[in-house]
Design a protein that fits this description.
Blueprint (H helix, E strand, L loop, with lengths): L10 H12 L4 E7 L5 H9 L3 E6 L6 H14 L13 H13 L7 E6 L1 H4 L6 H11 L6 E7 L2 H9 L11 E5 L4 H10 L6 H11 L3 H4 L8 H10 L9 H4 L7 H13 L6 H8 L5 H12 L3 E4 L10 E4 L2 H10 L10 H4 L3 H16 L2 H8 L6 E8 L8 E9 L3 E8 L9 H18 L4 E8 L14 E3 L7
Parallel strand pairs: 1-4, 1-5, 2-3, 3-4, 10-11, 11-12
Antiparallel strand pairs: 6-7, 8-9, 9-10
Length: 478
C-alpha cells in the first residue's frame, strides 16, 4: 500500500501509544479495527525507530510458514541467532526472541509489534501459549511496549482481550481504530492536495467510507465521480472486487458472514434476527449469534433497538459504506459491462442507495448533529423507528429519532439531493402524520421537534415553516 507521509487525525490514539512508550512499566497494547483502517500505519508512524521487531502474519499459511516468517523477520531486524535451524513451535520461537532481545544494548523503552495476529495464530498452533509465555515470563518484567494488532476484531477480543488463560487481564490498553469522520476525510484529502467541494467529499464517503487505504487511491487529477469510476467500475480498479477479498481474510466459514451482509443490503431499513434467518436460510443457534457478533465487532453491521421495543425486536443494519455500495451498485452491473458512474445518477437504484447511504453517514455523525442542535451536553438515545399499520393508522417509518433526557425528541427526516431540497405539500403532510403515528404508539409526553437533515438545505417556501431545525452536510464536517 502506498502511504501518505502525514498521520491524519488519530490524535487520541497516537497520544495513548506515546504515553505507553513514556510510562515506567511494561505495556501490552491490543490494537483492533476494520481491515484497511490504518492500524499498521498508525503504529509505524508513532513508534518508528523504537520498533525493534515487526512481524506480520501470513494470510492462509500453515504453522511452518508462520514460524519461518517469524524467524526471517527476527533476522531482518538484526536479531541473529547462533542456530541456523528455525524453531518448529511457538514456545521455542518466543524463547529465542527473548534471548535475542536481551542481547540488545538499549537503554530506552522499545517496541515489539506483532501485526495480523489472527493469521499468525492458526488453528491448533499453540501460538497463544507461546505468546503468553513470552509476556508472563519475560516481557512483563522489561522496559518494553508490545503491540498486538489484528483486523479480525472478534478473534482479537475473544482470544486475547477476553482470554481466560495466560493472557487473562494482561492487556494494559485496548485501542479500537475506527474509520475516519467526514472532517478527517477532508483533512486526509487535503494532505494529498485534493480540495474537493464538500458534496464531492460526501460522495466519496458514502461510497468508500472513512477507510484510509481506499481514500489513498483517490487521484487529484480526477473528480470524485471519476475516481469512483476508476476504483469501483473499472475491472482493474482496486475496489472492483474488494468485497470478495474482505471476508475470507477475516473469518473462518466466511460464507455465513457474506450471506448476512448480502441479505441486509437488500433490505436497507434493517432486518430482525428472525427475518435474517429466513432470508439467509442459516440455522438458528449459537453459530448464527456468533456470526452476527463478529460482523458487529468488525464494524460491518450495527444493531439498533426500536424505541420501546424489546431486545429481541432490534434491527440489524448494514453500515459499512463500501459493502453497501458494492452490493447495490457494483455487483449488479458486473455481468453487463462497467457503466459510467454518472449514468447511475438517474437510476432508481442509485436514488435508493444514496438515501440510505446518507442515513448511514448521519448515524455515524450523531455527535456532530447534537453539536449543531446545541444538545452536546444532553444525554440522548438514538433510534430508527418503524410502526406497522394499527388502530386505523398507516405504516410509518422514521429515519432517525434523537430521544433527549430533557423531555424532547427530534424526529429527523434525512434527505439526500444534488441541490437545495424543496419541501412540498405531500412531504410536509406525511411528516405531520409521522408525528401523529409516533405519538399514538409511543404514548410519549415529550415535545416533538421536526428536524430535517439535507445535503444543501431547504428551499424556503410556505412548507418550511413546519420545520423546527434544518441541518446540512456542512454540519457533519466538524
Amino acid at each position: 500500500m502506498k502511504q501518505v507521509q502525514q498521520l491524519i487525525g488519530r490524535a487520541e490514539e497516537k497520544k495513548r501509544l506515546t504515553d505507553a512508550l513514556q510510562s515506567n512499566k511494561p505495556e501490552l497494547i491490543a490494537l483492533i479495527g476494520r481491515r484497511r483502517v490504518g492500524k499498521t500505519f498508525l503504529v509505524r508512524k508513532t513508534y518508528d525507530a523504537q520498533i525493534k521487531l515487526e512481524v506480520t502474519g501470513l494470510q492462509d499459511d500453515d504453522q511452518k510458514a508462520q514460524l519461518q516468517n517469524f524467524w526471517i523477520s527476527m533476522r531482518a531486524y538484526g536479531l541473529h541467532t547462533t542456530s541456523k535451524q528455525q524453531p518448529d513451535n511457538w514456545l521455542d520461537a518466543f524463547f529465542i526472541l527473548t534471548q535475542q532481545l536481551e542481547r540488545l544494548d538499549i537503554q530506552e523503552k522499545y517496541v515489539v509489534f506483532l501485526d495480523e495476529l489472527p493469521w499468525m495464530a492458526g488453528k491448533r498452533s499453540n501460538f497463544i501459549t507461546g505468546f503468553s509465555y513470552f509476556w508472563n515470563s519475560w516481557a512483563s518484567k522489561q522496559h518494553i511496549v508490545v503491540v498486538i494488532c489484528g483486523s479480525a476484531t472478534s478473534w482479537m477480543i475473544e482470544k486475547v482481550v477476553n482470554d481466560k488463560g495466560g493472557l487473562h487481564n494482561r492487556i494494559t490498553d485496548i485501542l479500537h481504530l475506527y474509520p475516519f469522520s467526514l472532517k478527517q476525510v477532508e483533512a486526509f484529502l487535503a494532505s494529498k492536495h485534493i480540495n474537493y467541494p464538500r458534496y464531492q467529499t460526501l460522495l466519496l464517503y458514502m461510497t468508500l467510507g472513512g477507510i484510509p487505504m481506499y481514500l489513498d487511491f483517490v487521484r487529484k487529477d480526477l473528480s470524485a465521480v471519476q475516481n469512483i469510476n476508476a476504483l469501483c467500475f473499472n475491472e482493474s480498479g482496486f475496489l472492483h472486487d474488494e468485497f470478495n477479498r474482505l471476508f475470507p481474510a477475516l473469518f473462518d466459514r466466511h460464507e455465513r458472514h457474506t450471506s448476512i451482509v448480502r441479505a441486509l443490503s437488500a433490505k436497507q431499513k434493517g432486518l430482525s434476527r428472525a427475518e435474517l434467518i429466513q432470508a439467509t436460510k442459516l440455522p438458528n443457534g449459537g453459530s448464527f449469534s456468533k456470526t452476527l457478533k463478529e460482523l458487529q465487532q468488525s464494524g460491518f453491521i450495527k444493531a439498533f433497538s426500536g424505541m420501546g421495543k424489546q431486545k429481541k425486536d432490534k434491527l440489524y443494519r448494514l453500515t459499512d459504506a463500501y459493502c453497501l455500495f458494492y452490493l447495490s451498485q457494483i455487483a449488479p452491473h458486473k455481468d453487463g459491462g462497467s457503466p459510467d458512474f454518472k449514468q447511475l445518477f438517474l437510476t432508481p437504484s442509485f436514488k435508493s442507495w444514496s438515501g440510505y447511504a446518507y442515513e448511514n453517514v448521519c448515524f455515524a455523525h450523531i455527535p456532530q448533529i447534537k453539536m449543531k442542535l446545541g444538545i452536546s451536553g444532553v444525554l440522548t438515545k438514538t433510534f430508527s423507528y418503524v410502526a406497522k399499520p394499527k388502530d386505523g393508522l398507516p405504516r410509518t417509518q422514521i429515519d432517525l429519532l434523537i430521544d433527549r433526557m430533557d423531555h424532547a425528541i427530534h424526529i429527523c427526516e434525512i434527505k439526500f439531493s444534488e441541490s437545495d431540497y424543496v419541501l412540498d405539500k405531500k412531504t410536509a403532510e406525511n411528516f405531520k402524520q409521522k408525528h401523529v403515528v409516533f405519538q399514538h404508539h409511543s404514548k410519549t409526553k415529550k415535545h416533538l421537534f421536526t428536524t430535517f437533515i439535507t445535503t444543501f438545505g431547504l428551499t424556503k417556501n410556505k412548507w418550511t415553516s413546519e420545520v423546527d431545525q434544518s441541518l446540512t452536510m456542512d454540519d457533519l464536517f466538524v
